[in-house]
Write a structure and sequence with these properties.
Protein name: Right handed beta helix region
Organism: Terriglobus roseus
Strand content: 25-35%
Radius of gyration: 27 Å
Largest sheet: 20 strands, parallel
Number of strands: 53
Oligomer: single chain
């Protein structure tokens, strides 16, 4: 995927020029591009450029690389010798056939969900409106026949593919009649296999485009008064289209099943070259539910979108919900408290829209969510997961998260791009989060590697509650290096301590430019706003957070021209350090606050102008200044 824009990875190449964008050349070291100038940076000195120079260098950031859509032709999976192989064809098959040849294909393959010994199900291009619930381990879903052909849209929209087998959680609804109320409301017979309260209704073009479901109402009176809505009652689906026309002239589909594929407690599930869409909970759910469910491989040419809803499988401890396009987790209840999945590989595919309400922040749901897994890999994936995180790696109950890898992943047009929490010895590399909302959020990780990543052109998300470029909370020994950030809401990188435990580690050789950053309200900063390349609380500084060799470009507001901000708390507006100064701060840096004899309490006359502070000194030498509302200490 080398091309104009961001260099994700390399294999022996010499130099890659990333233009437009930060004006730097890259060299290939191992299989990763690093800035050619990184090794030349002084160990404890930042390279600072005026904000206007940075703005001129990349006014809007580099264009996204959409040179491919991660949809590739997949050969037949490697199969155990002697294992059964069955062909499936939705058009010509019959579930009563033996399925051993294309001429005697099955219609759905549901009858083979209990066949053990590495069963291979080969699907012809077509639509399969069933829910697959394996009762045996070792089942592989894969295509046969002509290879999928996909376009490569340049705007990050859904890749449109032909010749791809599609497992749908929805059914076609027809037979519409006017409900006789004169409200432009129509009804049709409808029976939901799953809970009808979770049904989603789609209108036209669901196969090749991510589609926004129609609004669900709670009564017949509301659907009759609200164009663009639906309601289910008495075995009927009532529909009131936005243009008041009859649904009979449209293709109407309603989700009737919770999953496309649900592994249950079975292991070694493999899916290749399959599209999963329009399920209530998840396109693919690897749910141990008290078992092991180890060995999920999602590999090559898969697509998943228009799955999930806002009120799915609930965690009774946190009241979070678990849903999305692709989900792997240990289950619910005490039976999964200490379990951990293994053998999870999710690669070479596309995860699109997640059908969750746009204002619902749910850290358990995502385009791809993996919870309580060791050695998991999410790599070479494009995610366009609106209304939720792009990817989530987190512990579920007390299950172990360790040695997991996220590499070469692009996230765009999302609300929350990445979420990695409670992970030990995990790494996130070559991630590109751009033209999106929210941030990449990490927290409570140990020995976490955050490297070679790019975040840019991000606004805040969830009513301005999710912002910054990289946002870390209370992690220990993080290695943050060779990352790039610009044009985000608030700070490029934060290391905070809301729980009182600092975020510690090293921050080296990054390129963080805050000159084009906004506040978390998505407006230009003022001198009173903290908008800086790196923000760190003093608890993190005291805990050992260190930085050196970073290229830091300050924020644009007058008086807001420091690179590092060692903050007592979120309300601390006193400037702290340049990168050079921060690198040599003593580990015993004071956290004691202002002296008793220094001015305290409310005040009304500010003692600062732009970058200058007029300090008022107490008897013991401690200093404070008035910010216009209260006296703040100088540490």
């Amino acid at each position: 995927m080398i091309g104009v824009g961001i260099p994700p990875s390399c294999h022996g190449a010499s130099v890659h020029s990333a233009q437009p964008g930060p004006p730097a050349a890259y060299v290939c070291v191992g299989n990763v591009y690093v800035p050619a100038t990184a090794s030349a940076l002084p160990a404890a000195v930042a390279t600072l450029r005026p904000p206007e120079a940075a703005a001129a260098a990349y006014p809007s950031g580099p264009a996204a690389d959409h040179s491919d859509v991660a949809i590739r032709n997949t050969d037949l999976p490697v199969q155990t010798i002697g294992a059964p192989r069955y062909f499936v064809n939705s058009l010509t098959g019959n579930e009563a056939n033996d399925g051993l040849t294309p001429a005697t294909a099955l219609a759905t393959g549901v009858s083979k969900m209990g066949v053990a010994n590495a069963t291979l199900l080969l699907y012809s291009a077509g639509t399969y409106r069933v829910q697959y619930l394996p009762t045996a381990s070792g089942i592989t879903f894969a295509p046969y026949g002509p290879a999928p052909v996909c376009n490569a849209p340049q705007d990050g929209s859904t890749p449109q593919c032909s010749n791809i087998p599609t497992i749908k959680g929805s059914d076609i609804v027809s037979g519409w009649t006017d409900d006789g109320t004169g409200s432009h409301t129509y009804k049709a017979n409808f029976t939901a296999i799953a809970d009808p309260a979770k049904t989603k209704v789609y209108l036209d073009n669901l196969d090749n485009f991510e589609t926004t479901p129609l609004a669900r109402t709670t009564s017949l009176a509301l659907v009759r008064s609200e164009p663009g809505s639906f309601f289910i009652t008495g075995g009927h689906l009532y529909l009131h289209l936005a243009d008041n026309t009859s649904p009979a002239s449209h293709a109407v589909e309603a989700s009737t099943r919770d999953y496309g594929i649900w592994s249950g407690a079975n292991s070694n599930l493999t899916v290749r070259g399959i599209r999963l869409m329009a399920a209530n909970h998840a396109g693919l759910m690897d749910w141990a539910n008290g078992g092991t469910a180890n060995g999920l491989v999602l590999d090559g040419g898969w697509m998943a979108y228009n799955n999930g809803l806002s009120d799915q499988v609930s965690d009774p401890n946190t009241h979070d919900t678990t849903d999305g396009n692709i989900v792997a987790f240990t289950g619910t209840g005490a039976d999964s408290a200490t379990q951990s999945l293994t053998g999870i590989v999710i690669q070479d595919g596309f995860a699109g829209r997640r059908d969750t309400e746009s204002m619902v922040l749910n850290d358990h749901g995502a385009g791809i969510a993996v919870m309580s897994a060791t050695g998991a890999r999410i790599q070479h994936v494009k995610i366009r997961s609106t209304n939720g995180h792009g990817f989530v790696l987190r512990r579920y109950y007390a299950g172990l998260m360790a040695n997991d890898v996220i590499d070469d992943v692009e996230v765009t047009k999302s609300q929350g791009n990445g979420y990695v929490v409670n992970c030990t010895n995990c790494q996130m590399t070559n991630v590109r989060a751009h033209d999106s909302a929210g941030n990449i959020q990490t927290g409570s990780n140990t020995n976490f590697i955050n490297a070679h990543n790019w975040v840019y052109n991000l606004t805040s998300a969830f009513q301005h509650g999710l912002y910054n470029g990289f946002d870390d909370q209370s992690s220990s020994n993080t290695s943050e290096f060779d990352n790039h950030c610009w044009h985000v809401a608030n700070n490029c990188s934060t290391h905070e301590s809301d729980s009182g435990v600092g975020s510690t580690g090293t921050i080296t050789s990054n390129h963080y430019d805050a000159s084009g950053n906004t506040t978390n309200q998505d407006v230009a900063p003022t001198p009173r706003d903290v908008v800086v390349p790196i923000y760190a609380t003093l608890a993190s500084v005291a805990g050992g957070l260190r930085g050196s060799g970073n290229t830091l470009i300050p924020g644009s507001a007058p008086g807001n021209l420091v690179a590092w901000w060692g903050a007592r708390d979120a309300g601390d507006h006193a400037p702290r350090y340049t990168d050079e100064q921060f690198a040599v701060v003593a580990p015993g840096f004071s956290l004691t606050g202002h002296a008793p004899t220094a001015p305290t309490g409310p005040c009304s006359a500010p003692t600062f102008t732009n970058a200058w502070r007029q300090w008022v000194t107490g008897d013991d030498g401690r200093k404070s200044y008035c910010d216009g509302s209260q006296w703040l200490p100088k540490f």
